[in-house]
């Protein structure tokens, strides 16, 4: 089964903003296991800006937000890929970097080229690791966030499932910090969740639960099941695929 997995910045960074290599390594172990079980994986990974920011701590203050994004992503993306390359290599898995932009998903030659690139990688058992090209996607050229990108990638690669990993178990019936709130495990097609969704966003990434929920609903409507789960939980990916009923998550049915 082909699965697109999106890993958010908050899963990959520690509280102080530095890259959490232990977590990356645990996720790589699980992806390797899923490949061994016969699944084909496409990875959409955030974390470039966060990892660049922690690398260049001393120069935050005098840069505007565009300069920061360009500088941090240029440095951070290289650092992120270096880690993935080394970690996957331990398992003999070849990885390739795909940096993309909104215009590559319109109706154009760009889209065909993008599709072809992903196809040739998958056909040759190279695991695509995809991120937005944050060095040149600025303001209105940007995706809302990598959640939006992961929905488009799942459709482009004709994945069966999209797993969106964040630092929370899924969508709750209220504020997740409130003990009265319950995790919504199943969302049927057409179900309106707007009353439940909190508008607060995670500190490291651009997306929030609102964007995850709307991407999930759209992607499920296109025939791909979507699961939102907590990437900080041990063995989450393997458990989602092998024992979903006993694993906390929100699943959007098709
Ligand atoms: N592409 C950004 C990064 O790698 C993250 C965008 C998002 O937060 O969704 O840092």
Describe the protein in words:
With 254 residues, this protein is of the alpha/beta class. The protein has a single domain, classed as 3-Layer(aba) Sandwich (Carbamate kinase), CATH 3.40.1160.10. The protein has helices at residues 9-12, 21-36, 48-55, 65-89, 109-123, 146-156, 209-221, 236-242, and strands spanning 2-7, 40-45, 95-100, 127-132, 161-166, 186-187, 225-230, 250-252. α5 links the parallel β3 (95-100) and β4. α2 runs parallel beside α8, α3 (48-55) crosses α4 (65-89) and α6 (146-156) packs parallel to α7 (209-221). It is globular, with a radius of gyration of 17 Å. The mean pLDDT is 93. Bound molecules: glutamic acid.
List the helices and strands and how they pair.
Layout: E1 2-7, H1 9-12, H2 21-36, E2 40-45, H3 48-55, H4 65-89, E3 95-100, H5 109-123, E4 127-132, H6 146-156, E5 161-166, E6 186-187, H7 209-221, E7 225-230, H8 236-242, E8 250-252
Bound molecules: glutamic acid.
CATH architecture: 3-Layer(aba) Sandwich
CATH fold node name: Carbamate kinase
Task: Name the CATH superfamily assignment.
Answer: Acetylglutamate kinase-like
Strand order of the largest sheet: 3-4-2-1-5-7-8-6
What is the first-to-last residue Cα distance?
16 Å
Unreliable segments of 5+ consecutive residues? none
Q: Could you tell me the radius of gyration in angstroms?
A: 17 Å
Shape: globular
CATH class: Alpha Beta
Main β-sheet description: 8 strands, mixed
Question: Which descriptors apply to this entry?
Answer:
254 residues; alpha/beta; Carbamate kinase; eight-stranded mixed sheet
